[in-house]
User: What shape does this take?
Amino acid sequence: MKTWFLDFWREREEVLKRTKQLRLRPPQLKRLLGDSSVRTELQNARLACLLPPVGTEVFRRFMPASLQDIQQQQHEVKEMEHQKRKNKEVRKVEKELHKQDTHLEAGKHLPFIYGDPPPELLNCPLEELDPFYQSQKTFIVLSIGNVLHRFNAESSCFLLSPFNRLRTFAIRILLHSLFRLFIMITILTNCGFMMMSVHPTWTTITAEFVFSAVYIFEVIVKIMSRGFCVGRFTFLRDPWNWLDIVVVITAVLPEFLDLGKVSVLRTIPRALKIITVYPGVKSSAGALVQSVKRLAGVIIMTVFVLSVLAVIGQNLFMGALKHKCVLEWSHSNWTYNDLSNYDNYEGGSSDFDFHKFINSKVNHFYLSGQSDPLQCGNTSNAGVCPHGYICLKTSTNPDYGHTNFDSFGSSLLNLLRLMTHDTWDYLLEQMMRSAGKSSVIFVLLVFSGGFWLLSCVLVVVAMAVVEQEKASIAEARRTEEEFLHILDVIKKREEEGEEEEEEPQDDQRLSPPCFLSKWTWNCCGCWQELRLRLNGFVMDPFFDLVIIICLILNCIVISMEHYPMTVEFEEMFMPTQLVFTRIFAVEMLLRLVAMNPYDYFQVGWNVFDSIIVALSLLGLVFVEFEGAHIDLMRVLRLARWWPTFHMFLKLIWTSVLALRNLTLILLTMVFIFTVVGMQLFQDNYSDFVCRISTDCQLPRWHMKNLFHTFVLVFRILCGEWIENMWDCMQVSSPSVCLMFFIMVLVFGHLLVLNLFLVLLMSSIGDDLVAPKEKVKNHLIIAVDQIKRGVAWTRAWILEHIWTLVGKKNPIIPHYKVVNSEEDKKDYLGLTSVTSDQPLSESKACGSNHGNQTSKYNFEKVPVAEAEVEFDMPENEEEKHKDEENKTRRNNTPEDCCCDSCYRCFPFLDIDRSQGSRRVWSNFRRVCFSIAQHKYFDAFIIFIILLSSAALVLEDIHLQQRKLVQMLLDKADQVFTFIFLLEMLLKWIALGFRKYFTSVWCWLDFLILAVSLMSLSLGMLGYSELGAGLSLRTLRALRPLRALSRFQGLRLVLNTLVATVPSMCDAMLVCLLVWLMFSIMGVNLFSGKFYYCFNETAEQQFLPEEVNNMTQCLFLIHENVSDVSWKNIKLNFDNVAEGYRSLLQVATFNGWLDVMYAAVDTRQMLSQPVYESNVYMYIYFISFIIIGCFFTSNLFIRRFIHSLDQLRHKFGGKHFFMTDEQHNFSISMKKLFSRKRPSVPRPQNQCQARLFDLVTKHSFEIFMVIVICLYTVTLMMETDRQSMEMELILFWLYFVFIIIFLIEFLLKIIALRQHYFSDCLNVLDFVVLLILVVGFLFSDICEKYFIDIKVLALLRLAPVTRIIHLVPCMRGIKRLFLALVMSLPALFNICLLLFLLMFTFSVFGMLSFAHVKNTARFHDMFNFETFLNSMICMFTMTTMAGWNTVLSPILNTPLDCDPDKDTPVGGDCVHPTVGIIFITSYITLSLLLVVLLYTAVVLETFNMYDTETPSDEDLLMFYKTWRRFDCDNSHIIPYSKLSDFCDALQDPLRIPKPNTFKLIHMDLPLLPGDKIHCVDVLFALTAQIFGDRGQMDSLKARMEEKFMINNLSKMSYEPISSTLQRKQEEVVATVIQKAYRKHLLKDGDADEMTAEPAGGAAAV
Assistant: This one.
């Protein structure tokens, strides 16, 4: 599998670093500018051609004479253009050949060939350096840093000439760094005023006047220096300057008009001016705009997919969410007559208002703590109402009426909610309660579509980043090549003996400056000897090892802080911290003395260490430093010896420094959204707060002030937006709120995604380097020495032990110390014995007893049979012998026991070739044949599936089904017996040695052992005890036996195993970072989450009632009421609890409860107060950025690094699919790439006209428009629409069916029998048939065959005809084809994910079925049945809902009943089991989901990499070539190339006029002006598909298909190229015209001199 973008990022950093260091030394620069011989050799170099002639100055002031020269050149150019008008071809080619040089573009740095300009010429007008502009009225100005700026030489605003002092002064102001700083300070000050929600009016007016004056002054300076609009480099020609115009207009306009809330929009351009101040930020913003342009196709596809899914949801759930539990008539004044008139009630004469009754909130059933009534449904598996209530359809929807599918807009909004995973588990619960648990299928369909769309967005954004970088890297490579060429030419001209070093050596140590020489501590000899001894001591690897151990111990000690701590522990805790402070202070002192201060502070880590030690010592002196958490910063010192942790810190530094432009854009957008949101909605939240709060108090999420608005915007960027938007819609305009939140969601996530991808790939080259020797740090050296010492000690002890027992020649086991990750990978693998890999082919120990063999067999990962590396025999004879030996081994079982068993028990080593022992040997062969047979393996798979299906039935209702329970017990015995027979059969067939050296056999053995022990305990009557229940629960592992039976599953699993070491390393870094935040949380919040709770009223006491724990305990002592001093389940009382709380925050699941408790904290043991510590939000925001964003980036980076190592190790093999699946993927690519069959035009004139009509591209466009209108018609349906609307929609459907029928008739008449040869036409026919049958027989189908909702979905069938557009849209076709090609890999990964879900669902059902239900853990979301368990696992796969599962599992005996009568004894569960269960599933499912995205993204990149002409395209090219190459010589005249390219078919066709395109293809010309077919095909491929580096494979395909290699191209040496030939023709034409002009001038001069002589003679 090719991942060319990884190879590209390998070289990016290195190329950029080399390019930045390109410098010519002053002697070399002088020779380049003044040596004519050097310039002669460099006449063809692109950069050298930009230099002025030898002997002239490089930088010349722009003077009036310069302007006159430009005007004279313009006059000559106009005359030449006038003469060229007769020859359009020459004019166009010259225009293409003479282009602006990219090195001298405005805003770029001056190329290295010019050197540094004199300081007096900076910020002064200079003559043009680019030959392209030397004939135009422009001049340049170089600012500090040699940045080039270009201006028009025309008078600015027709008033100020280039030599006007006022304009020159304006240019100096514009380019001065202090002016940019002044503008930046003004913008930041203006932003500061924007952030003030309340300020005096006079301050606002004065500040606004000052800011407007500064912005107007900036515009005036720009216009004076550049001009207004006439000219290429004037003010309005730069789109970024339009922003200044908008700022000025929005500043002046409110003075004359009252714009109301529209005036808020002036905030946006002012904040965006931050981007325009610095050029680097502008270029990054431009790159972002280009990436958005590339998303156009994906956006269209996203809108279409969302629209289709919204219509599906509209048809399935329209009006369903209105069903609620209403008080039953027997419990109210509702009579039976009212009930009987329910269906026909339309507000008649009855006094009973039925609709008012069912819509009254008093008659609805509410769960505790819920604001919406309990929903229900009338299907079999929908929600059920409690006793006394009945399920009826009301007129309101939940969540302020916004959560529904009653119209297209509402359906689309909820669909977007599902795709962004914003509280989607709540929406799923509502859908399941209203429409049944089959709603999960729709959600799964939505997630599949969202998965593909997000993959497409990832690919397109990544491709945009790569394409932008490729252009800069290509330019950097060309510059580097030219630099080396120039340097080589200069060196050739240098005299002998002159220094040829390009730059000074880096390894020469620089001596310190004189004023720092005293810090080198070069004193007496005794001091020097002491320093040398100390230097040897501190530089020893074991010294670093001791320091690392101390750091780890310090980390462990500070993580032991908890609440409440005993007095003894506190007395031990503080001195321990002092000990570590002294140890690190001594370490600093030793290093300082050993290295001297100057050398010590040259190392960055030493500086960091000294700062920490200094702060720690200050903490001992000043008490106020105790809360500074200085000890926590010591953890960062581990990055000095831990490469992965160092990489993580480098990630953060890269985002701050290297990606500062992109980060600044993101922060600017966040600021804009924050300020705009505050100014738009702050008054609404104040005026209408009672609409969203029962006590008329501002909710926690509002936009009343700046900080709360910022926190709300950050929450939207985290993916939670829907609930806040509902509140906003209640207090303000729904359309404004919808627009604001959608813009923040889309643009914010796009910026975050772009930053994430750029950060991921910016320094990925550091990880994806070719394997080479790396310098080992002291930690690795110390560990290696310890390993060698332990190994030597072990060997020495064994040798003496054998000597003591009398052995003269002891056999000492060989040992190998694994010193590197590369060595470890050679030992990593899994051995499998499966049906598709014969048993005898597993890598096993040899049959010779005397050989020393390893304990386990290892296979390289992946273990697909075709991917295992092996040595090929050199000749056919060896190959034949190998096949014979292999066949003999396949039919011969190996030895039963290992070599040590035969040595210890010699009687086992018997001769099996004679007597009765031969019977045993034959019996083993028979067993071996049976175990190896494919039917036996299929039978075992069938039994595994049956046993897994039996586990599904063991739900909570099994106790009431005695017959089913008895059958399951018998079936369990049968399955166990069959698996026991299988194991015994394999023992006999394979032997113990081979069986127990396979990991998969070990897995089967352990699962069978669990089943046998469980079965034995059941027979003894101990199945209801703890051990018996645990063993019965472990039977849930039985489905894992299927892993070894499917090669695709095994392949994905082995790939995961291969990534485990790298993933574990990244995981440890993540845990360390989380440990730091957990310790910080313990210091901030330990003991502060407690509160006094009124059990009777089920609410907290107010701080005015109970202020602290003492008053609460007093109430408990007085028995005032049922009062308790409680702590929330998610807290920071110790590091372990902190980890769990941070996991909630990291997964954005239950994180709000943690943050609410944190912002309400006060002092320890005090009653929380509402938002008394609101700035604690910053702690969680910091954790989300550092502990989630950067750690996930590191995690994915290490994962890609592991996959890339596998790719290199196995030669580009695909490690997500088997060879058969890979071949299927290639077949699917060929199938989808195949062109539609050509249909001959009919002879009949009428049919021919119809044929021309239906084959036109405009006809397809018309039908697509019809389909879009049809889809819009489907969107118009609403719940409870009027009869008139239903009638209109009915006739519209009828009209569309008639149109589709007419299209079918036209095509069947025109195409005849060829109509059904196209699969798309067959699809159209099936769609039409479904529509006609559904329209004509809808009543019958609805009554007898199909549900009404399914029948409504069939009307969506015409939407599938949009597939006709896929072949026409190249980008979407690539993405669609990439998805199709990645389907086998997705199938394998999804199958493994399903197996994981299945196993955990069974385990959860067997372990947590009797857990006490809570508010969120109820009848729809529990482990009581297998279906509910699968729904729980499905929600947890997306990191949603797991807190609602874990919360009841963590119940203590105070919250649950351990003595309740249940089969497991109570409804309490051990919390440790639940924590391990949840965390393990979240980790594994997250890894598999990352694998899913990686498979699609890599396959899409592979599509972009390997796209070449198909076999049909090559065949078409060859057939067309034969028409022009009659003698089959593979060459044609160049004059026929235009006709040939026009005669080709798409996609290789270049229609006429194609002269200029063919010229720029730069084809090699052979003698006689002929061209070769291979060159033409390569050029066309690069023109159409892009140059992807696949030309070698394309040439091989051509040689294979058309046998071009019979006629070697080596005999045809090119003498020129098409582009070079045209350049020569143009140059010749120009020379001829200049020569003719010169002759005409000479002729005129001769006539002028001859005329007076003639006149005199006449006189």
User: Anything to note?
Assistant: The mean pLDDT is 76. The first helix runs from residue 4 to 20.
